[in-house]
Design goal:
The complex is a heterotrimer of chains A (496), B (166) and C (82).
Chain A: H1 5-9, H2 13-31, H3 36-57, E1 64-66, E2 71-73, H4 75-95, H5 99-102, H6 107-123, H7 129-147, H8 154-185, H9 190-200, H10 205-225, H11 233-240, H12 243-268, E3 270-273, E4 276-279, H13 285-304, H14 310-330, H15 334-365, H16 376-379, H17 381-395, H18 401-415, H19 419-444, H20 459-474, H21 479-490
Chain B: H1 3-24, H2 28-48, H3 52-76, H4 92-112, H5 127-135, H6 139-160
Chain C: H1 2-5, H2 9-33, H3 39-69
Amino acid sequence: MIMDNLQSLRYFYPELTLIVAMLLVVIADISFKRLRSVLNPLLTIVSLLLAAYFTAYINHSQEANLFLGMLALDSFAQFFKLFLLLAAFLVVLGSLQSEELSQVHQGEFFALLLAVTLGMLLMANSINLAILYLSLELVSLTSYIMVGYLKGDRLSNEASLKYILFGAISTGSMLYGFSLIYGMTGSLNLYTIRDAFLSQGVQGFDQFTTLLALVLALAGFGFKTALVPFHFWCPDVYAGAPTPVTAFLSVAPKAAGFGILVRFFFSGMTQTTGSEWGLVNGINWPLVLIGISVLTMTLGNVAALTQNNLKRMLAYSSIAQAGYILMGSVVLTGEGLKSMLIYLFVYLFMNLGAFLVVTIIYNSDKSFEIGDYNGMFKRSPFLAFAMGVFMLSLTGIPPFAGFLGKLYVFLAVIEKGLIWFAVVGTLNAALAAFYYMRVIKAMVLEEGNGNVAPLQVSFLNQALLVALLIPNLLLVFFWNPIDRWTASSARLFGGL
Amino acid sequence: MSASDIIFLIVAVVTVGSAAIVVLSRSLIYSAFSLLFTFFGVAIIYVYLGADFLAGTQVLIYVGGILVLLLFGVMLTHRLYSLNLRTETFQVIPGFLIALAVFISLALVSTRTNWHVVADKPLVPTTDTIGTLFLTEYLLPFEIASILLLVALIGAAMLVRRRADI
Amino acid sequence: MGVLTRKNAVNVLMGIELILNSANINLVAFSRYSSNGIDGQMFAIIVIVVAASEVAVALAMVLTMYRLLRTVNLDQADTLKR
């Protein structure tokens, strides 16, 4: 059912909370000169928790369109909202003691973080091209600023500039694709677009136009999720940005990008018939997606092998992980979709954990080079252990959470008969093990460079690390609840 | 061809021509000024398409805002004594080939596709409708756009201010 | 092509503006000939707003770069590659 503006407001509480909090942070930043270093983070954290509470509390099981057809309200939306709020929450906690950020004025950082979270909440649930473009740009613009936050730092600025130029080109192309779709269907609403494509059928030359339009749209989505060949900005931006920002970028906008990719292609371009999807236009989507997925995985893993800068390595690693996630979308079934959601969920904890360790080490050693990670085991066994868990989880080794993600994705693919695809994925995971293990090896086996002072990890960071470790270690045993939760979220797209 | 068709043709040629100059010119100032003509051309095209409010907005914001900003950018980032504002181009051949491919595909697209065609509508002033739509159907984009502007404001101000404590 | 071949950051920005404008023309034209109602025009207005914000932020970044490096030549922004 389509709700009008006033009715929709009641379902909009999470986003409203974020908006109010953002405004409050801006005001607090200029009013309370002494309290603001405490007030800003506090406001941010409280508002994120409140928004998460509202999201859980609002009944998402009805399928409705808000604001006269702009946003969708369903369990798929609920999953992403909770995911994104959780990601923002963890990143805020992780950023509180970052050396990089403590040198610059932080008030705006929290306001920007709230704004980008708001943008992502909207982005993952858009069903109208106008609000989709707007929220995507809101996320992008805010990320540009956050990446370039360290004004005095050359790297940060350069990263941000590359990000801006590349991003503007990608989203501009995406916009052009949207305009072509509008021309072909006469509507900006995803459902109407799908119906228009289905009813009039697409033959002959129109196929080329549709393909072009969708490739252009994919440019925008691929940019946000760093899929090949739209990934060029990723290593530089990840390396130059302040580490908490990098951590955030590697999980949150990526997830939101996947959310909108799924919605756009699955709601707008395919139809549900039973438990499988028919293809609109007869364009062989799975083939395209398979190709991109394989390229992304392989390129990410191969490039990561030669990196010595840990942030760049993790950048390529997250590119590869995006390839694995995309595998789930290829099969066009509810199972595949569910596997994507599960992978995203475990990926959140793995990646944030790894970046948190990087932040902590940078705080004391001021370095991101893997050579400086040598002998970390002697200096802080806890840190080395944590990093070991995160690395193993990213590789996908049981019994860590990463294994769960990979398992589901590979199973979904095998079920559909694409066994060779799963084999490619497994080979890639084996390849990836090389560079993940390199980090562990450096920390545990190599001799330190002479800096033998034990590394003190602050209490907050310790607590945070534990909080991130627990899901990595234990999620495997809770696979059933997770399975059911993501299944209900994926049910929207049919067939579970 | 009627007079209005001829004028449209002229405007279209001017617009595309200026865009070409923006892209190909060796001098940054020439690029900036031909961008001006491009924007104006686009505004006139909007009028032809019955989008009167949009044409006015285009002139106001693009010419009056964005172009001025770009000119500031050009002026502030060059040493003033060297007014020879030349820029180099590199890798022209691959760029040109890609552009050619894009152009050909777009030309094919525009002429061969079955666009969704609707009966011709009379040209009416649109300001009224736009205003109403922004407060009903497009309310959410309207509000979010204001947040976007706020964020851009915060970001740009934060990036450019001097070190002094706030 | 303006985006692929230029070295000066402001020049690239101009190219980006051209891309956005071209998409906008599409939107408005289709709004007149392909749809009932003026959705295309609404979308175009939104795009103009986004473009203005993007230029503002991009130029702020360019100015920061100029402050740090005294140039806006993109070839010289290569510290990250090393």
